[in-house]
Inverse folding.
């Protein structure tokens, strides 16, 4: 008995094929564009069109970075800066999420806390540096507190907004089922608000690293800011650029970690 194989594959429409090709081309362009910019930068530097004391060539920046890495300075600087961001971010999460919960869950808390938070949020963050120096000196405290202050507000705003957007019917159902206030918060409100809180965490991370760049200009004796300041004093523009690249890389890495956590916690949602 002979069997005949039936080809069940259906060719894609011409429009879908063109769309796939277009996406592949755009993806390749997206990947290649940064390398093209670096190549042009290196070319114009080699031709003398770009002054090396103002904008060093990528090869010079890479060479300077390798020197900082092999000397051990980079590892020590990253460790000091990461510690400041970690402490400041933990404090920012505790304060921002805590106040967001109070404001989101309580009208009285909203009336008392929110006007004051909005007033503080309107203050220029980096304009507080002289005041922080007067209050706390030039040690670690003003640096960590500046990072903390920058991290608080995205978490506070996202947490309070996420709680307000929870369907009241879900809360009412929890009461009908006999949930206590603590159970409702733990089992319903916090899980429902978690995706938006993680969005706030991503925003807080970006502001935390930005705040650290400024904070480490306050008479720092360690960290990436100290490395950059020291390079500035010796007119090492290549090391300054390398330090800024490291700042950006650390920010991207931490953002990717939080983004992965966000995707994991929202994996049950229909996209």
């Amino acid at each position: 008995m002979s069997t005949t194989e039936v080809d069940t594959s259906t060719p894609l429409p011409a429009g879908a094929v063109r769309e796939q090709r277009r996406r592949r081309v755009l993806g390749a362009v997206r990947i290649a564009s940064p390398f093209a910019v670096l190549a042009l930068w290196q070319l114009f530097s080699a031709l003398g069109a770009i002054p090396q004391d103002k904008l060093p060539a990528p090869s010079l920046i890479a060479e300077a970075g390798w020197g900082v890495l092999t000397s051990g300075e980079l590892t020590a600087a990253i460790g000091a800066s990461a510690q400041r961001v970690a402490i400041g971010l933990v404090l920012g999460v505790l304060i921002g999420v805590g106040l967001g919960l109070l404001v989101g869950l309580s009208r009285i808390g909203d009336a008392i806390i929110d006007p004051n938070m909005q007033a503080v949020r309107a203050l220029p963050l980096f304009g507080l540096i002289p005041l922080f120096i007067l209050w706390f000196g030039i040690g670690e405290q003003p640096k960590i507190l500046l990072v903390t202050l920058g991290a608080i507000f995205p978490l506070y705003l996202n947490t309070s907004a996420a709680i307000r957007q929870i369907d009241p019917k879900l809360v009412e159902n929890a009461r009908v089922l006999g949930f206590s206030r603590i159970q409702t918060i733990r089992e319903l409100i916090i899980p429902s608000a978690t995706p938006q809180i993680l969005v706030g965490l991503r925003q807080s991370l970006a502001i935390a690293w930005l705040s650290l760049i400024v904070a480490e200009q306050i008479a720092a004796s360690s960290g990436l800011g100290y490395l950059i300041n020291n390079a500035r004093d010796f007119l090492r523009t290549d090391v300054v650029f390398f330090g800024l690249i490291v700042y950006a890389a650390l920010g991207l890495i931490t953002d990717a970690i939080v983004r992965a956590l966000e995707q994991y916690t929202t994996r049950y949602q229909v996209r």
